[in-house]
Amino acid sequence: xxxxxxxxxxxxxLDLGILAELAGQPDAPxxxxxAALGIPASTCAFRLRSLRARGVISGVRLVIDPAAVxxxxxxxxxxxxxxxxxxxxxxxxxxxVATDGVLQVFHIAGGDDFLVHxxxxxxxxxxxxxxEHITVHQVVRATETxxxxxxxxxxxxxxxx
Length: 161
Hints:
CATH architecture of the largest domain: 2-Layer Sandwich
Oligomer: single chain
CATH class of the largest domain: Alpha Beta
Structural class: alpha+beta
Helix content: 25-40%
């Protein structure tokens, strides 16, 4: 069994086991996670505190079904920039993440510069995000909107148990 103290800041097999248990059931009590791994609850609690302190686990996130709150239409908006000044990119990034209906913003490399994942009520609201919140920025050269028909969560970086 790995030692109780992980002093190198590296994620070891026990940490990965704890993460795998939590990936499958994030709200599992420490005792349940410990029992599944065959370790004392005190060891599990210590390791969880260490994972949080080291930033391996950061925060707890509430996942809301957009359709349940009136935003059933999801889309990915590809954004291409005309120029790439740090100030322009940062200002656009900040504005995008602060826009109602925006779920995630990816600053990417390649033919596009940003991918903006949105959830909105309807096609009019989708158009409004593009016209009122994206193309109004001088650094934006073009956008392309793609509707999301279905979204599934991937396996993640730590396989679930």
